[in-house]
Amino acid sequence: MLNFAQARTNMVxxxxxxxxxxxxxxxxxxxxxxxxxxxxQAQESLAYMDGDVALNEATDGPRFLIEPMAFxxxxxxxxxxxxxxxxxxxxxxxxxAAVLAQLVLNVTAVEQDTGLVALARQNxxxxxxxxxxxxxxxxxxxxxxMFDLIVIEGRIDEVPSALFSQVKDGGRVVAAIGSRxxxxxxxxxxxxxxxxxxxAFDISVAALPGFGKPKTAFAF
Length: 220
What we know:
- There is one protein chain.
- By secondary structure, the chain is α/β, with parallel strands linked by helices.
- It has one domain: Vaccinia Virus protein VP39 (Rossmann fold, 3-Layer(aba) Sandwich), CATH 3.40.50.
- The protein is built from six helices and nine strands, in the order H-H-E-E-H-E-H-E-H-E-E-H-E-E-E.
């Protein structure tokens, strides 16, 4: 039988630390959160592999638990603060929200697949600072809320304006941006009615459904 505790240690030591994840809070949290609990029995042996893991329960298209190293680096560049209110987009079965819940004040996790919503609520029932919301990924929270940080768990072509409108002034959005597997992790910081963009690192994670492709500019 696979020793999951040892697998978590190996993940931290061989995937996270060598790839520049130095925030002790993130390392300790990902060492403690049982990633295998967010996968079906047939997939749990893959929980700590260095890559995305398919979530077979999804019905809205191919869905994945994104690779540990990519997720950890996204969180590090997001510059998490313990007082942050975070909007987690594409919650899947809830692993990302479970990690975030240990690091910030509270998490609103949005998931558009009904089956995954049910699993996420089951998996996160013991966490008082996480709320699972069923709704469109691209629309974000259906409530009139503002967040310090938005984390998008999957590759998208661009961040929609609906999500930027839910970020507080000075807040951040972290997302994998690109139309192909080889994308860029970008960190956006809102300032008034505009935002700055920083390319943090190259990233290869699965696409997240629910986001339309950007419109092509008219050409004569």
